Each structure stands twice: as structure tokens, then as C-alpha cells.
Amino acid sequence: MGGASLSAMPGSEQLKGNIEDLDIRDGKSESEKSYVYIDGNMDSTPHSADDAPGYGPYEATVSVSAAEKWEKELLEDPKNRLALSALAGTDPKTVLTQRSATIADTQSFNIKISLEGSPITNQHSSGRCWLFAATNVFRVAIMRRYNLKEFELSQSYLFFWDKLEKANWFLEQILDTTDEDLDGRLVQALMASPVGDGGQWDMVANLVEKYGLVPQHLYPDSFNAMNSSTMASLITTKLREDALILRDLASKSPNPRSSVGSMKEKMMREIHLMLTLMLGPPPPPNKEMTWEYYGKDDKFGSLTTTPLDFAAELSSKETVEANRGSDVHELFSLVNDPRNEYGSLLSVSRLGNVIGMRGVRYVNVSMSTMKSTCIAMLKAELPIFFGSDVGKWSDSKSGIMDTGLIDYELGFNIRLGLTKAQRLMTGESAMTHAMVLTAVHVDAEGRPVRWRVQNSWGEGAGSKGWFVMTDRWMDQFVYQAVVDPSFVDQEVRDVLKKEPKMLPLWDPMGALA
């Protein structure tokens, strides 16, 4: 993610200015000086044959003499020697950050929900962004229902049950693929990350339906929730070992599941033990808990309920009315995948967490449909869970996501011209992070200019935890928005009734935020 600010790097601003003064782009028209070419309307070929340097005939190997020639010609140009001084000793993202973008990308918006939810949350050193984004959407409905100034749901509660369910899901997939080669792509994809921290909207919906919700202070983060790598590594190692045992036992029986029941139960019990010791025992889903709180008027309140009933309350008449008529249990995912036909239902084979519950479902739509739906929801005071590739052309310190933020061609004289579809096809991009939209700024014609983003990296990132995303960045790097069905046309809702196109487990749409 983003490096240090320019102000923290002595001389880097001056060096950047000198590069610009020397104009490393000699001979180009003004229209060619927009260096990071990531326009989704570009043709399918990132570079034309005319761009190829004329260094001689085709060579299959790397020529030392050619490399020496390239270096000599490169360093004969004073612009490149200056670029070397600037870029070799500093993070290129810092040197090439465009001041104009940092000035233009402000935290000001003309459409903004009045209750965004607070405090800013912090997932720390874990991959739980999807759980934070989802609970940050859920909490707004709860805060409206109980007139709360601040509120946070327990992400660790869902994290515990997700890990246990993913372990079971993994073992079931292993038993279901015993006829596949161990070194085949499918089994290796399953083995790659049996209990990764990431997830998707439908997966959190499964957890909430089966286990409910808990206020954060009734099941706070343990050390291993905030720093999950050791726990994940240990459980992954154990599950890979268990997978080999199950495959071996299953190979000796005509009915694998009937012959490994007691062994699988032992394996699951061991995973449960590890989770309990590292995260702490969670509140039982069907046993009563007492939540005590203060409202905005400092009036004390108390609610005795179960986690399951607390979650079910989100669909009650009182909560739905308080939440501007929206039932958060009815939300579903729109995605923008330009590789596939718009108006189609997409799913991912063998991706999920809870056996017997829903898999991942995506309604594939154009970006214009996705954005118009998001604007309508924000006008109706509703926050939006969304998934994106957060590391591209962004800076975590300033909290800016803008395709014009970092001018790589200025420093390297290269063109970066992949389309959104090409990034997906080549593994260059995927959903890597989930956050929440709470505001948008639109121009006089109602077209979005920039979006306000609630992140889960604590108040030290961005503007006290808040990020700003340009609409150009959204077009290129946002893949998903979770929306209320009442804000889309019937034609879009009907897509949910279709048979899904099943994408393979390794497809980028199977990436877990």
C-alpha cells in the first residue's frame, strides 16, 4: 500500500519538479500527456507495433551486449539520469504522486447519508475487511433502531464461526474430490487457502443467519483476531494434513463419507479447540445475552436477547422502518465483470463457507447500472458494502484512490494500457478489499465525480479513517456493490432467478475480499 508522503522525503518534490521541467515526454502533444492509460474503452492491444523500439532482429534470449547498449543510451539522456537519482532512493509512488490529485480529491460531497456509523473500525493485521464492511452496514440499522450515537458489532464473533465453518467446508470439498488428482488444479486450489481470512457478502449472510450477531463489547477482539496470520497458518497446516488422511481413507472405501465420519469429527473438534484457545469461547447463538447501552440522549437502555434473535430483529417492522424501509437481510450483490455478459447470474464453483446454505451469487451489470443504484441508495440514506482492488493507484496515508494519483509514465516513460477485462483475464486485478460507501459528489448533470469511503484500517489511515475515491477509479477497480433490491429494475431482480454461470474456483471473481 501507499508509501510515505512527499513532505516526508527531503528533496523528492524538487526532483519531481525537475523531471517535469525537463519534459521526459519530448515530442508528445498535450493530449498524450495523460500518462497512466487505463481507460476501459481502449482497444484490446495495450501497445501498438509502432511503439516497439528498433533495436534489431528478434532475439529469444537476453543479450548482454544489447542490455549494455540500452543502458548507455538511457544514461546519455540527462532526464533519465535525474530520474535515476529520484527513483532509486525513494518509493516511486512517493516521487510520482501528482499534487493536483491530492488537491482535487477532497472530502466534500453534495449527497451524504446523515448517519454514517461510528466509531471508525480497525481490522488491524487481519484480512477481515468483509466482516467489518458488512457489520458497518448492519450497525447503521441498529443505531437508527435504538437511537445510538456510537455502536460496533463483534467482527470476531462471526470470524470464529467462519473459521470453523470454512474448515468443515474444506474437508467436505476434499471428500467430494477424491477422484481428482492431488496435484491437479482443482485440489491444489482447494489446498491453497482452506481457512483464509477473506470472504464475500453471501458468506457473511450465511453466518448471520446461522449464528446471529453480537455487540462488540460482549465478544471483543483477542490478540489473534487482530493478528491472525499465526492462527491461520497453524490451522491451514493442520487441515492440509487432515486432507491427506481423508483422501487416503476414502480411497480404500466405496463410500468415502460413511467410512470417515468419526475421523472427520475428530478433525473438526481439534480445529474448534484451536479456535477457542486463540479467539476465546464465543457466546452461544441460541442463549441469552444482555446488551446495555446509552442512546444519543444519554438515556440508559438494556436488551436481553440471543444472538440469533438480535440478528433477526434487523428484519422487524420497527427496524426496517427506522432504516428507511430497507431490510439488510434482503441485500444482494451486483458485480461488474466485463468478461461476461451483462444481465447474467454468476457464481463460483466450490466457493462458500456453510454447507447446505447459499453459495456466492453475483448479478453482472454495467458500471452505469451499478453507480446509478448506489447514488439512489445514498440519496435514501443507505450505506453500501462494496468490493474493489484497493492497492491500485491509491495511497493509504492520504486515503486517496484516483487513477491520476501516481504518474508512472512520467518516471518510466511507459504505457500502462490494460482494460478492466484484460486485468481480470491476466491476473492483474481482483477484489482484494471490502469497504462502505456513505456519500457521493455529483456534478450539475447528476454524474458522479467522487465517492466517500468508510474504511476499516483505523483512524490513522486516510482522513481519520475516511477515504475518497474518484469516479474514474471506481470505473476501473470497483467490482461489487451490495444493494437493496428495491433500488434496481425488475429486469435486474429477475436475474437472480436464472441458472448461474459457474466460474472455476481460481477465477478472479472467486477472490475473497
Explained architecture:
The chain is an alpha+beta fold and 513 residues long. The protein has a domain at 6-96. The radius of gyration is 25 Å and the shape is globular. The chain has helices spanning 12-22, 64-76, 78-88, 92-95, 99-104, 129-146, 155-176, 185-192, 201-211, 223-226, 229-251, 256-259, 261-279, 307-312, 317-322, 367-379, 408-412, 420-426, 471-477, 490-494; strands spanning 111-112, 289-294, 300-305, 332-335, 345-348, 362-364, 384-388, 394-395, 400-401, 433-442, 448-454, 466-470, 478-483, 501-503. 40% of the residues lie in helices and 13% in strands. Helix 7 packs antiparallel against helix 13. The strands form 2 sheets. Strands 1, 4, 5, 6, 7, 8, 9, 10, 11, 12, 13 and 14 form a 12-stranded mixed sheet that branches. A two-stranded antiparallel sheet has the order 2-3.
